[in-house]
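Hi support team,

I've been running sequence recovery on a batch of backbones for a student project. Most finish fine, but this one hangs at about 90% for roughly twenty minutes before it completes. I'm not sure whether the input is malformed or the queue is just slow. I've pasted the structure tokens below so you can try to reproduce it. Let me know if you need the job ID as well.

Thanks,
M.K.
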């Protein structure tokens, strides 16, 4: 059964509050979590995504699916946040996959070659809306 957390609003201590340009919704499932992004992922809003991922990883949930279907914009800082959290998930024996990429994010993924990493994951995982393979 999915456990849903409303908007993830945790900001880093001492940092200025991130603008409300990005909504982060976390849905925990059996053994993995889906993070749904709505709005803009950039230098100012990336702390929200990083905090949501880190909170899951700290609790031992290392298999994460990021649903980017609701993103209107993503810059290189947002892409860097996704790649950084993916490396941390891999380090902990998990995965971070991006689904629903379109528009600017899809173009960034294609131009940088990150699509092959963020949309397919490490050997033994697959991408689909139901979550990462075991």
């Amino acid at each position: 059964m999915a456990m849903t957390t409303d908007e993830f609003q945790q900001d880093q201590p001492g940092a200025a509050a991130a603008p409300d340009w990005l909504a982060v919704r976390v849905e925990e499932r059996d053994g993995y979590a889906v993070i749904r992004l709505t709005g803009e992922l950039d230098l100012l809003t990336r702390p929200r995504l990083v905090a949501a991922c880190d909170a899951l990883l700290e609790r031992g949930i290392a298999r994460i699916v990021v649903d980017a279907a609701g993103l209107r914009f993503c810059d290189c800082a947002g892409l860097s946040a996704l790649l950084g959290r993916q490396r941390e998930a891999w380090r902990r024996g998990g995965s971070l996959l991006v689904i629903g990429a379109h528009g600017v994010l899809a173009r960034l993924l294609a131009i940088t070659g990150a699509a092959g990493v963020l949309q397919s994951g490490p050997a033994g995982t697959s991408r689909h809306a139901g979550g990462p393979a075991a």
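--
Follow-up from support: It reproduced on our side and the slowdown came from queue contention, not your input. The two ends are 17 Å apart (CA to CA). No action needed from you.
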